[in-house]
Amino acid sequence: xxxxxxxxxxxxxxxxxxxxxxxxxxxxxxxxxxxxxxxxxxxxxxxxxxxxxxxxxxxxxxxxxxxxxxxxxxxxxxxxxxxxxxxxxxxxxxxxxxxxxxxxxxxxxxxxxxxxxxxxxxxxxxxxxxxxxxxxxxxxxxxxxxxxxxxxxxxxxxxxxxx
Length: 163
Known about the structure:
single chain; alpha+beta; Nuclear Transport Factor 2, Chain: A; six-stranded mixed β-sheet; 27% helix
């Protein structure tokens, strides 16, 4: 590998990791109105179970097609949904770039989400993997598609905040 190739690979990896960090900090810092801006205008966000994913089943627990649906989801979370207040703390690991071609990057990561309830109880809320399609738009990477695959098919409360 040449120095130029290594530099390009490292720059791409850092850009992907920056997007992933922006994603989790936007959610964990309760800046949810900014969350749709991490996606392309026609971006897709889905949450499914490992069982459905492994069996090729298209059913998703959450499905947002475009920034408009994502913004509506956040608006509903703020004004209409009734749920016990809580916050998330994401832990990301094993970020991998699976391929990059023609301006499209495929990447994946592992995640754990710790949930802290208003009274202070903290629990492991979700564990899984993400499979992402990223593109550069406006000088920065954005998600064209984000698929979060939960290891468990059980969610003990309303899946209201994005994972």
